[in-house]
Amino acid sequence: MDQINTQTSVPKNIAIYVKLLAIEHYGSLNVMYTDILIKFLSISPWKANPPLPWRMAKVHSPAFNKGKLVSDASWVPMNMMLPAKLVNDIKAELILINATSEKNVSLRTFLYTAIFWWCTYVMPSKKSGL
């Protein structure tokens, strides 16, 4: 099965929580990512009343501290190896979303919103601070 590497950014605490969920429930991050995105597409929470708002993923812009290159420690990249068909289904949905929305929802935003939705509404942490 063809896989496509996709990327978004998430807050560091969500990245840690996602890894814990994958270990406990799926055995693999990419298996969990695929499940999350299939369910996110199927349920379409952005169409709910009220709709789930789109979450903008921060871009990793490099920062300099005393002349040295440093990265934003509060957000980390999240690389997802996803089935090509799923990525194509997401891109097709993005065309529909962007045709009816004032916002231009990117693939990065779609992926981050799906992860946020999963961690907040589907499998929320029992600990505060997520």
Low-confidence stretches: none
Number of strands: 4
**Compute the gyration radius: what is it?**
15 Å
Instruction: Give, in order, the helices and strands.
Output: EHHEEEHH
| Total domain count | 1
Number of helices: 4
Strand ordering within the main sheet: 1-4
Report the major sheet.
2 strands, antiparallel
Distance from N terminus to C terminus (CA atoms, Å) equals 34 Å
Proportion of residues in helical segments: 40-55%
Strand content: 15-25%
Structural class: alpha+beta
Which outline best applies?
A: globular
Task: Summarize model confidence as the mean pLDDT.
Answer: 89
Description:
The model has no long low-confidence stretch (mean pLDDT 89). Helices cover 48% and strands 18% of the residues. It is built from 4 helices and 4 strands; from the N terminus they run E-H-H-E-E-E-H-H. It has one domain (3-122). The protein starts with a strand and ends in an 8-residue tail after the last helix. The protein is of the alpha+beta class. A two-stranded antiparallel sheet has the order 1-4. The chain has a two-stranded antiparallel ribbon with strand order 2-3. The protein has helices at residues 12-26, 29-43, 84-99, 107-122; strands spanning 3-11, 63-65, 68-70, 75-83. A hairpin with a 2-residue loop joins strand 2 and strand 3. It is globular. Helix 2 (29-43) packs parallel to helix 3 (84-99).
